[in-house]
User: Fold this.
Amino acid sequence: MSVIVICGATATGKSDLAVSLAKDINGEIINADSMQLYKGMDIGTAKLSIEQRQGIPHHLLDVLNVSEDASVAWYQESARSHIAEIESRGKNAIIVGGTGLYIKAILDELNFPDTDPEVRERLNALAEKIGGPAMHERLAKLDPAAALAIDVQNLRRVIRALEVIEITGKPFTANLPRKESTRYPEARQFGLVMDRQSLAERIDQRVERMWAQGLVAETRALIEAGIRNGRTAQLALGYA
Assistant:
């Protein structure tokens, strides 16, 4: 069977559906939620408990400390390795999550140039000096398509795009996938949708559960564990 992807907005029921499907088709689940990679970020990310997983193996959950940074390149390699291992045992891989770039990284032949600490440090220093909007203007001159795709407020992505341009000598958009460059052409993708009122009610209920389950205490523990030192983990919604 082909790789199966279940994606959609928060609280649409992705995780529960994936468990049910895995039980029916002899599957194992690969997490595609960038924040469920982290140990200790359980309540605030609505991570399924061991009991809720109902014996279905879940991969790429709780694999990083909150002080560590995740990269799409690392995730791509890890997820594809898990897919190959799952399929080698005659089982089916089910990818579940709401981080669209992670899902694209699995399915498409995205190219991720290496980082250069010196270039990155120089660009960060320049950003502190001239500001985010000016950095975005620099990107617009070098790669107009990338500037259109990257929000001016997303300084981290702006700097990454400028870094890639400097390292490769090519536009950042040259590294984006083409339609014909699909790693798993038989992959089946299912996007869950729900009417806005019902979804808003489900999100409200989820937030109430998070407070009741101890979100404040979990956040304090994450601060002690170093979440403020992790550029990726501290971006998680809710904890800030």
User: Anything to note?
Assistant: Strands lie at 4-8, 27-31, 58-59, 92-96, 188-192.
